[in-house]
Amino acid sequence: MNEDVFAWSLVLIMLLTNTLLSIYGITYRRSLTKKLIGLTILSDTANLAFILIGFRFVQPAVPPVLTELSLESLEYLRQHAVDPLPQALVLTGIVISMAVNALIAFGIIQAYRITGSTDAKVVVKHFSEEVRGE
Amino acid sequence: MSRRFAVLFLILALTIASALALSYADFARPAKGLKPIGLFYVENSYFGNLTAKSPEAVTAIVWDYRGLDTIYESAVFFLAIIGGLSIFRLESPQLMAKEAKGLTKISKTGSKIIALLIISVSASIALHGHLTPGGGFQGGSTLAVAPLLLIPVFSITRLVSAGITSKRLVIARSAAMTCVGLTALLPVIKGLELASNLSFYPAEIGGELISGSLFFYNLFEYLAVGSGFTAVFLYLSTFEETYRREIEKEVGT
Amino acid sequence: MITLIHLLLSFSSLLAIVFVYLAITEKDLIKAIVFSAGQSISYAMILQLFAAPDVLLAYIAVSVGIYSALLVYVVSKTERFDGGGKNE
Questions:
Q1: Which of the residues C29, C74, C81, C82 would you substitute to probe the A interface, choosing the one with the greatest number of A C-beta atoms within 10 Å?
Q2: Which residue, A109, B84, B105, B137, is most buried by CB atoms nearer than 10 A?
Q3: pLDDT in tens, B2-15
Q4: Would you say A113 and B65 are in contact if contact means Cβ atoms under 8 Å apart?
Q5: What is the ipTM of this complex?
């Protein structure tokens, strides 16, 4: 049994388990703050899965940075560097999910100020009654 | 409580068992070579015809090859800040109703030293982004930890009376974003494409490699992200009674 | 040959699962925030082993610094426990 394949499979199963656990946390927990924590874990797991795609299992796997400005260094990078494109896309993804999570946090605080509770059922009932009552 | 740990142990055992099963079946094999487009970016980011003259491939992709994506992502972050500010708006911006003293003198002196170190480290991360791993966003979010430390230690009233209000920080963020937009728009004046890099900007200034517009993008994004986060934490730290009075006035309780 | 990379990958994967489970099933939200920060640290170890230093710098500052602080603000302005209530 190759130990490269075992470590790779373990990371894959870990990503799957974390996705399922965070989806359980988002749907079955009643507190809005706990749902937000589950959402952050889910987006972190998805970003890590992207980085996993760009990896190559050679013995020293180096980041795609030229250490000296010479053509031998470029040849070394061709043999040993990992893919730079998923890392750039994940950077954009981290910023956007952080912006959305910050906005959700503000929404939670405002919902608590208006309804007095962070229980999801109470908040939804309060606002739907308000809409239906008009 | 022991039921929780029993379920945790079960999950860990299931994970290891399925990883062993997956590796015996030889199902997922990691890659050993680069995909063609990744190879293109690694080869062309310094040497090559479509070069960005930057030895760091990821920063070249983020600000040169896919620069417009990053500009729109900064716009999304800006929208989140403005959205939060509009949720937490105050009709009459009254200044703090009570005085808060902050922590002891020891904490204050220690925080001053640490905040200075954080600012210098984050500037180094941001400004060297075209040579080593780093860049504008990384430096900016590291810079955001400094006001996070200063707000509980010095108390928000002290910061506001020193002139650091969230309105001024949003103005600073808007100014930095305008500079990012200008850096992208300047090549258009000469008839080139939007957000061009080396056809307009110099690759070296005074013998030092600055990779064209990458250095300026990193600098302005650093200032923009740092001031944006500081504005968010400042208006998040306002006392709760101020907002409660506003809500009671609006709801009419 | 088993090198340090395989051992560290396996260790941080298992640690991540432990932290995620403890964060989701914890009733005290402050402890859940601490467990979530621990999960971010184990993900950061995996990111370093996958040779992604740019993502690592952005991820650590955002996830351990910004998210933890934001969530502590949210918990201090709303309820502390998952079932509701400020003190027990």
A1: C74
A2: B137
A3: 899 999 999 999 99
A4: no
A5: 0.92
Q: What is the chain A residue with the closest CA to B130?
A: A65
Contact C84, C75 (CB under 8 A): no
C81-85: long-range pairs with CB below 8 Å, 24+: C81/C27, C81/C28, C81/C29, C82/A29, C82/A30, C82/A31, C82/A34, C82/C26, C82/C27, C82/C28, C82/C29, C82/C32, C83/A30, C83/A31, C83/C27, C84/A31, C84/A117, C84/A118, C84/A119
What digits encode the pLDDT tens for the residues C13-57? 999 999 999 999 999 999 999 999 999 999 999 999 999 999 999
Domain A3-133 in CATH 1.10.287.3510: yes
Whole-angstrom Cα distance, residue A124 to residue A122? 6
User: Using CA atoms, how far apart are residues B72 and B251, in angstroms rounded to an integer?
Assistant: 37
Examine the pLDDT at B48 and tell me if it is beyond 90: no
Residue type for position B41: Y
pLDDT at C88: 40
What amino acid occupies position B101? K
Residues B12, B141: Cα–Cα separation, whole Å = 34
Locate the domains of chain C by residue range: 27-81
Among residues B74, B232, A112, B102, the alpha carbon closest in space to that of C67 is found at B232
List chain A domain ranges. 3-133
C-beta atoms of B125 and C58 within 8 A = no
Look up the pTM and report it. 0.92
> Which pLDDT does position C10 carry in this prediction?
93
Collect all residues with Cβ–Cβ distance below 8 Å to B49 and sequence separation of at least 6.
Answer: none
Single-letter code of the amino acid located at C82: D
Other chains touching B, judged by 3 or more CB pairs under 8 Å: A, C
| Residue A77 with chain C: CB contacts under 8 Å | none
Smallest Cα distance from C67 to chain B, Å: 11
How does pLDDT run across B81-104, given as a tens digit for each residue? 999 888 888 766 655 556 778 889
Place of tokens 């780093």: B134
The Cβ of residue A123 has, within 10 Å, a number of other Cβ atoms equal to 19
User: What digits encode the pLDDT tens for the residues A64-98?
Assistant: 999 888 899 999 999 999 999 999 999 999 999 99
**Residue A7 touches chain C, beta carbons under 8 Å:** yes
Is residue B75's pLDDT more than 70? yes
Closest approach of B156 to chain C, Cα-based (Å): 14
Share of chain B above pLDDT 90, in %: 51
Q: How far apart are CA C83 and CA C27, in angstroms?
A: 7
